[in-house]
Amino acid sequence: MDGSALASRPDLAPAKKGAGQGAFMTTLEETAASRRGLRARTFFGEPLGLAYLAFTEAWERFSYYGMTALLVLYMSQALFLPGHVEHVAGFAAFRSALEAVFGKMSTLALASQVYGLYTGFVYFTPVFGGLIADRFIGRRCAVVLGAVLMSGGQIAMAFDSSFLVALALLVIGCGLLKGNISVQVGALYAPDDSAGRTRGFSIFSMGINVGATAGPLVCGLLAQLYGWHAGFGLAGVLMLIGLATYIAGYRTLTETTPSANRAHPEAKMDARSWRIVAALLLVMALTIFESVAFYQNSNIGLVWISFHVDLGFFGLQIPVAWFNSINSFVSIVSVPVLIALWKWQARRGGEPGDMTKIAAGAAIASLANLLLVIGCAAFVRVPVLFPIFYNALLGVAFLYYWPILLALVSRAAPPAIKATMMGVAFLTLFISNITLGRLGALYEVIGPTWFWALHAAIAATGAVLALVLAKPLTRMLAPR
Questions:
Q1: Which end of the chain is more exposed for a tag (fewer CB within 10 A), N or C?
Q2: Domain's final residue, options 214, 243, 262
Q3: What pTM was estimated for this model as a whole?
Q4: SS3 track for 418-477
Q5: pLDDT tens-place string over residues 19-40
Q6: Same domain assignment for residues 256 and 274
């Protein structure tokens, strides 16, 4: 660098005329340190990119849960009734196809099945979204494209005629966004930073739950005051805000290009990599039991509340959709408590392992469903505190299994298929939601008491299996 160049760069010039080389080098070192400080900006001690990812996910979940809190009620109480259902483009053929597979269905059974299929396929397509990102367009482009499609889908939900088109856009868009944004969270941390990664995913899950808390509250209130489509329209606007948030943080996110996945030797799959994949698939399968018991709260749970719960609370009539916010709110406030608990246990050498935490989550979900069994058996009109505590327990159960699973996949999955494996993790929610949608048809047949007892048993089965398989799976997934 010549003298003229130094003169044009005050930050690189000597502190004062005549200063020696030592002063000059000190200034350079201070400038470099300043720049490193700018690069090292953090979000509550975590990488700055986590802030953009967490807020993007918060807006996306605000939109998603606001819409799904209305969905089964909207279908069963309005859209699928005569005078409305005729306006839905392509619905006659769609219903015929469903009934050819599942048999003749009542309006409620049909609404439950459509809900299960929609929420299931939302978590099926991330497998393909991960493949597309890993091999073709990269994760950042995949997330942006997914957010655009989801925005269009939420806006299309505001019209009866485009109902099926809206669901299709949401399913495809979510497939591109969900798994890839979760992989980007894990990519913010060093491969051996297991504790940091778990903190990152817990904070990321807090963003999920902030959106999941606010969505049903705001969209549910709008729907009650101004009609179903007002609630759906707001969900579309919120998704656009999520897209803008992600674009604002685009440069803070690292990207592994598809060509790097194919070229780097460390990305190749060997025998040990495939053993890790097999172990991860088994862990994922174990979480399906809890997911079935957990996510029924947004399907038949809302229908049960609307017909069997006394919704009066200190003189107020609680909107049914609001109950979907409780578990998410409890998850938010429980994150710092559980992180402190796990740190306290770790200092004493007793923090539960990943598999034990997953088992604990399933046990808590089982307890939550047993609470509804007691309410159904003891009361004709169930007090409102029963569904409140039911959803509160589910909020704690969520933190004991879902962020733990995502962090485990992010750490252990082979680099060449990391985004794909994250998509496979969401595939468990596809299976869970398809299952719970089908189980919803039993509600009218076996009655509420036995229905919730069935779900308690499903979650308990997952808890037992996770405990039994904890040691061998932990050995297989231990980092080297």
A1: C
A2: 262
A3: 0.72
A4: HHHHHHHHHHHHHHHHHHHHHHHHHHHHHHHHHHHHHHHHHHHHHHHHHHHCHHHHHHHH
A5: 444 444 434 444 443 444 444 5
A6: no
